[in-house]
Design brief:
There is one protein chain. By secondary structure, the protein is of the alpha/beta class. Helix content is 17%, strand content 28%. The strands form 2 sheets. It has a 4-stranded mixed sheet, covered by helices on one side. The chain has a 4-stranded mixed sheet with strand order 5-8-7-6, covered by helices on one side. It starts with 18 loop residues before the first strand and ends with a strand. The relative contact order is 0.17.
Length: 132
Protein backbone atom coordinates (compact mmCIF):
# COMPACT_ATOMS: atom_id res chain seq x y z
CA UNK A 1 0.00 0.00 0.00
CA UNK A 2 1.31 3.44 -0.85
CA UNK A 3 1.18 6.48 1.41
CA UNK A 4 -0.76 8.59 -1.09
CA UNK A 5 2.08 11.09 -1.24
CA UNK A 6 3.23 11.68 -4.82
CA UNK A 7 6.86 10.97 -5.65
CA UNK A 8 9.39 13.76 -5.29
CA UNK A 9 10.28 15.75 -8.34
CA UNK A 10 13.63 17.42 -8.91
CA UNK A 11 13.88 20.51 -6.74
CA UNK A 12 10.61 19.81 -4.91
CA UNK A 13 9.82 17.53 -1.99
CA UNK A 14 6.71 15.32 -2.24
CA UNK A 15 3.58 17.13 -0.98
CA UNK A 16 0.01 15.86 -0.63
CA UNK A 17 -2.94 17.97 0.49
CA UNK A 18 -4.44 15.85 3.27
CA UNK A 19 -7.04 18.31 4.44
CA UNK A 20 -8.46 21.75 4.99
CA UNK A 21 -8.72 23.02 8.57
CA UNK A 22 -11.61 25.18 9.78
CA UNK A 23 -11.45 27.08 13.05
CA UNK A 24 -14.44 26.75 15.36
CA UNK A 25 -15.40 27.51 18.95
CA UNK A 26 -16.37 23.81 19.33
CA UNK A 27 -14.60 21.60 16.76
CA UNK A 28 -16.52 18.43 17.71
CA UNK A 29 -19.89 20.13 17.17
CA UNK A 30 -18.84 21.53 13.79
CA UNK A 31 -17.40 18.13 12.78
CA UNK A 32 -20.80 16.66 13.68
CA UNK A 33 -22.53 19.08 11.29
CA UNK A 34 -20.20 18.20 8.40
CA UNK A 35 -20.47 14.50 9.23
CA UNK A 36 -24.28 14.74 8.89
CA UNK A 37 -23.90 16.81 5.71
CA UNK A 38 -21.32 14.60 3.97
CA UNK A 39 -21.70 11.20 5.60
CA UNK A 40 -17.92 11.00 6.07
CA UNK A 41 -16.55 9.08 9.04
CA UNK A 42 -14.89 10.80 11.97
CA UNK A 43 -11.29 9.58 11.77
CA UNK A 44 -9.69 11.63 14.51
CA UNK A 45 -11.04 13.26 17.64
CA UNK A 46 -9.12 14.72 20.53
CA UNK A 47 -9.23 17.79 22.75
CA UNK A 48 -9.62 20.78 20.43
CA UNK A 49 -9.45 18.78 17.19
CA UNK A 50 -11.60 16.59 14.95
CA UNK A 51 -11.14 15.26 11.41
CA UNK A 52 -13.41 13.75 8.76
CA UNK A 53 -12.10 11.86 5.73
CA UNK A 54 -14.19 10.57 2.82
CA UNK A 55 -14.67 6.81 2.51
CA UNK A 56 -11.82 5.47 0.43
CA UNK A 57 -9.47 8.26 1.53
CA UNK A 58 -8.65 11.57 -0.04
CA UNK A 59 -8.59 15.12 1.19
CA UNK A 60 -10.42 15.52 4.48
CA UNK A 61 -11.73 18.37 6.59
CA UNK A 62 -10.35 19.07 10.04
CA UNK A 63 -11.74 21.32 12.75
CA UNK A 64 -9.62 23.01 15.38
CA UNK A 65 -10.60 24.89 18.50
CA UNK A 66 -10.31 28.65 18.28
CA UNK A 67 -11.82 30.31 21.36
CA UNK A 68 -11.55 33.75 19.71
CA UNK A 69 -13.26 32.60 16.50
CA UNK A 70 -15.23 35.34 14.75
CA UNK A 71 -17.44 34.24 11.86
CA UNK A 72 -16.81 35.88 8.50
CA UNK A 73 -19.28 38.26 6.92
CA UNK A 74 -20.91 37.09 3.67
CA UNK A 75 -20.80 38.91 1.37
CA UNK A 76 -17.67 40.72 2.48
CA UNK A 77 -18.06 44.19 3.92
CA UNK A 78 -15.41 46.80 4.70
CA UNK A 79 -14.41 46.41 8.34
CA UNK A 80 -16.10 42.99 8.66
CA UNK A 81 -14.32 39.71 9.35
CA UNK A 82 -13.13 38.53 5.94
CA UNK A 83 -13.68 34.99 4.68
CA UNK A 84 -10.29 33.43 3.96
CA UNK A 85 -11.42 30.11 2.53
CA UNK A 86 -14.65 28.36 1.71
CA UNK A 87 -15.64 24.84 0.70
CA UNK A 88 -17.28 23.95 -2.63
CA UNK A 89 -19.33 20.77 -3.06
CA UNK A 90 -20.45 19.71 -6.53
CA UNK A 91 -23.98 18.27 -6.65
CA UNK A 92 -26.37 17.05 -9.33
CA UNK A 93 -29.54 18.46 -7.68
CA UNK A 94 -29.17 21.95 -6.25
CA UNK A 95 -32.55 22.08 -4.51
CA UNK A 96 -32.09 18.66 -2.87
CA UNK A 97 -28.57 19.57 -1.72
CA UNK A 98 -29.80 22.85 -0.27
CA UNK A 99 -32.67 21.15 1.57
CA UNK A 100 -30.31 18.49 2.95
CA UNK A 101 -27.81 21.10 4.15
CA UNK A 102 -30.56 23.05 5.90
CA UNK A 103 -31.87 19.86 7.54
CA UNK A 104 -28.33 19.27 8.88
CA UNK A 105 -28.17 22.75 10.44
CA UNK A 106 -26.98 25.10 7.70
CA UNK A 107 -28.79 28.27 6.71
CA UNK A 108 -29.17 29.74 3.25
CA UNK A 109 -27.21 32.96 2.79
CA UNK A 110 -29.30 36.02 2.00
CA UNK A 111 -27.03 36.96 -0.91
CA UNK A 112 -26.86 34.44 -3.78
CA UNK A 113 -24.46 35.51 -6.59
CA UNK A 114 -25.38 32.87 -9.23
CA UNK A 115 -28.34 30.71 -10.26
CA UNK A 116 -26.33 27.46 -10.44
CA UNK A 117 -24.66 27.91 -7.02
CA UNK A 118 -26.18 28.05 -3.58
CA UNK A 119 -24.24 29.74 -0.79
CA UNK A 120 -24.99 28.27 2.63
CA UNK A 121 -23.67 29.10 6.07
CA UNK A 122 -22.59 26.37 8.49
CA UNK A 123 -23.63 26.50 12.17
CA UNK A 124 -20.65 28.67 13.20
CA UNK A 125 -20.75 31.01 10.20
CA UNK A 126 -18.41 29.55 7.57
CA UNK A 127 -19.89 30.05 4.09
CA UNK A 128 -19.81 27.03 1.80
CA UNK A 129 -21.23 26.42 -1.65
CA UNK A 130 -23.11 23.66 -3.39
CA UNK A 131 -23.03 23.95 -7.16
CA UNK A 132 -24.10 22.14 -10.31
Amino acid sequence: MTSGIPPARPGRPPLFLSGVVLDAPDPQALAGFYQRLLGWPLTQQEEGWAKLVPDGGGTGISFQAEPSYTPPVWPAEPGGQQMQVHLDFQVDDLEAAEAHAVSCGARVAAYQPQDDVRVLIDPVGHPFCVFL
